[in-house]
Amino acid sequence: MTQNNGEPQRRTRVESFLLQQPELEPHIDGHGPVGWDEVIADSLFEIAALAKATGVKIRIAQFKEKFGKLRIYTEIDELSSTGFEVIERTPAHVHLRTGAVPGSTRERVQQIVDAATARAAKVCVRCGQPATLTMGFYQFCSEHSTAYW
Ligand SMILES: [Zn+2]
């Protein structure tokens, strides 16, 4: 393990998870704010457990922050996709993804991703504590809402 001033280097839960499950390492660079570490790590654990339980190969294409929201892009080796559906539409952008056959592993992955996105929207991007204030695209707790700017 990498040493840093004699102390073991601290890793985020996401980094620790990906060291143990390198097959889920996203193949496109990207990362979420540190405050989303728990949310992203929990969703990766759930996706890994789902892949193991179903035998369906699931790859993480990327996870990242976009317009203040968590995006987790996956590739699922299952013939369960339907046509594109609109996830979100604003004057600035349209978020599309392929739909999923009900009851499929793809649908379950989308439920995990949607739950993670909803959870990330409620926590401080700096520390992961419950958010109390939105500034711009981002959520902050009471401590970090005053310290950020
Ligand atoms: Zn905070």
Can you offer a commentary on this structure?
With 149 residues, this protein is of the alpha+beta class. It has one domain. 32% of the residues lie in helices and 29% in strands. It has 4 helices and 8 strands; from the N terminus they run E-E-H-H-E-E-E-E-H-E-E-H. The strands form 4 sheets. A two-stranded antiparallel sheet has the order 1-2. The chain has a two-stranded antiparallel ribbon with strand order 3-4. Strands 5-6 form a two-stranded antiparallel sheet. A hairpin with a 4-residue loop joins strand 5 (81-89) and strand 6. Helix 2 (37-54) runs antiparallel to helix 3 (105-120). The longest helix has 18 residues, at 37-54. The radius of gyration is 17 Å and the shape is globular. It starts with a strand and ends with a helix. It binds zinc ion. The site of zinc ion (ZN) has 8 residues, from helix 4.
Write the layout of secondary structure elements.
Elements: E1 3-4, E2 7-8, H1 13-20, H2 37-54, E3 58-66, E4 69-76, E5 81-89, E6 94-100, H3 105-120, E7 133-135, E8 138-140, H4 142-147
Zinc ion (ZN) binds at residues 124, 126-127, 129, 140-141, 143-144.
**Overall mean confidence score, pLDDT:** 88
- Approximate shape: globular
Number of strands: 8
Number of helices: 4
Please tell me the total number of domains.
1
The H-and-E topology, N to C, reads as EEHHEEEEHEEH
Quote the beta fraction: 25-35%
Give unreliable regions as ranges. none
SS content category: alpha+beta
Ends distance: 35 Å
Computed over alpha carbons, the radius of gyration is 17 Å
For the sheet with most strands, the description reads: 2 strands, antiparallel
The level of helicity is: 25-40%
